[in-house]
Write a structure and sequence with these properties.
The protein is an all-alpha fold. The protein has 3 helices and no strands. Helix 2 crosses helix 3. The protein is globular, with a radius of gyration of 11 Å.
Length: 67
Amino acid sequence: MDCITCGKPLSVYDIGFYKKMVNRGAESCACIPCTAAYFRMSEAHAWEMIRRFRRMGCTLFPPPGED
């Protein structure tokens, strides 16, 4: 799957972050930089949110230690 905005290949983190922030049932997604830009946040803030979601057990991301 590729980013709907810039066309770059997506990782599990890109897909999980997009689904968490936009629509859990999304069939097309944007990468973390494009999603962060849409929400007017830094990429660093987006990655901090992902770390927090993982610690909370969000199933959209691999558990900590299983990268």
